[in-house]
Amino acid sequence: AALVNQIAAGEVIERPSSVLKELLENSLDAGAKRVSVVVDLTGDGLIRVEDNGSGIMKDDLPLAFLRHATSKISSFDDLVRARSMGFRGEALASIASVARVTLETRHQSDAVGSRLEWVPGEDPLISPWDRPVGTAISVRDLFFNVPVRKKYLRSPQTELGHLTEAFQRVALGFPDVHLELSTPSRKIFSLPARHTPLLRILDLYPTFQEEDLLYHERGGEDLRISLVLLRADRLRKDRQFQHLFVNRRWIRHPALFEAITQGASGRISRDLHPGAWVYLDLPPDRLDVNVHPTKREVRLLDGDRIFSLLRRVISEAFEGFSE
Ligand code: ADP
Ligand code: MG
User: Fold this and answer.
1) What is the β-pairing status of strands 34-40 and 178-182?
2) Would you indicate the residue range of the signal peptide (predicted)?
3) How many CA within 13 A on the CB side of residue 280?
């Protein structure tokens, strides 16, 4: 089983930023309203994510690290309806097979929490641990037992860049969650909970002013598109401000980027990419996120309809700027 886990880990866990992405998604799935991240990529490396979510019940704790152990689906029906970001039960098992993991947690129904120390190949140590409701997971020494993968890690600076990017993508999808990112020597982001994505964007990109951005939304029950558009004169050739979220999850979707480009045609010069943060909300049964284990790609069942609506909404939104 250990080997199977290590192989699968290669798919999900490529580098420190993939660990962070998975841990953040688990915190959000657990309903956390506050999540703080500390990373130290010097030396053996540490990624610690602490949340005020549901916590894990004492009896469930050993299960969390088993492959395909997920608390998020219990039937095929649930699988189709899954709203949460994880539901494959792979991330913790994968991380725990290639790093030293400690987890401290308390569920609200437990009077005392627990601490679990996991070293691949050994029996986990579980002991009582006092802490508020929620979970803190520390991942140390990533790939210590997979030297070939460790060799491919870049400089701490480069890896921190990837980590910051992963953090920002989550922050953009969840403006209503208080999020912090720091290293031992500095606070990189401290983002208060916000009511709108526009305010979160201003927190993340302090060089933009409120009048540079425009919020627009359209649609109904089964498909809602909301977006924040960046004023054409704030666009830069060397930077792309374009992000797409489906049910709050950041995704790649070249076809929908094309819809954004088409919707912006005539509004911005051809050599620039339109600046847009686009949020699609649709019923989970209209998409398939299990195309790839990292869930960065989704298949949309009403792709054509979404394409034309998005193109139209982008074009409409630009009109808002000229008033
Ligand atoms: P998945 O998210 O796909 O269910 P994971 O391997 O990411 O699988 O997590 C396994 C299980 O561990 C989750 O289903 C959840 O029950 C539990 N878990 C992990 N992280 C947290 C957390 N921060 N708060 C509460 N429960 C957690
Ligand atoms: Mg998960």
Assistant:
1) parallel
2) none
3) 30
Instruction: Read off the tokens for 209.
Output: 């002013």
For the chain, the maximum distance between any two Cα atoms, rounded to a whole number of angstroms, is 65
Its sign, for the CA torsion 176, 177, 178, 182, is negative
Nearest CA to ligand 1 atom 16: 71
Which of 12, 22, 26 maximizes ligand 1 atoms within 8 Å of its Cβ, making it the mutation to test the pocket? 26
- The residue assigned the tokens 């029950």 is 221
Exposed/middle/buried for residue 152 (C-beta within 10 Å: 0-12, 13-18, 19+): exposed
CA of 91 to the centre of ligand 2 (A): 5
Q: Give the span between the Cα atoms of 162 and 17, in whole angstroms.
A: 6
Examine the domain organization and report whether 292 and 235 are in the same domain: yes
Rounded Cα–Cα distance for residues 220 and 230 (Å): 24
CATH number of the domain encompassing residue 293: 3.30.230.10
pLDDT digits (tens, 9 = 90+) for 289-304: 666 666 677 788 888 9
User: Are residue 115 and residue 35 in the same domain, yes or no?
Assistant: yes
- Measured from CB, residues less than 6 Å from any atom of ligand 1 are 22, 26-27, 29-30, 51, 53-56, 64, 69-72, 86-93, 135
User: 3-state DSSP call for residue 146?
Assistant: coil
What tokens appear for 308 in the block?
Answer: 């034309």
3-state secondary structure of 171: helix
Q: What is the pTM of this model?
A: 0.91
**Among protein residues, the one whose CA lies closest to atom 21 of ligand 1:** 26
Interface predicted TM-score of the whole assembly (ipTM), two decimals: 0.99
Closest by CA to 56, choosing from 139, 140, 136, 174, is 136
Examine the domain organization and report whether 8 and 157 are in the same domain.
yes
Q: Which residues of 214-250 are buried (b: 16+ CB within 10 A; e: fewer)?
A: bbbeeeeeebebbbbbbbbeebeeeeebebbbbbbbb
pLDDT digits (tens, 9 = 90+) for 9-37: 666 788 999 999 999 999 999 999 999 99
* Full domain range(s) for residue 20: 2-191
Side-chain half-sphere CA neighbours of 71 within 13 A = 15
Q: Cα(71) to centroid of ligand 1, in Å? A: 7
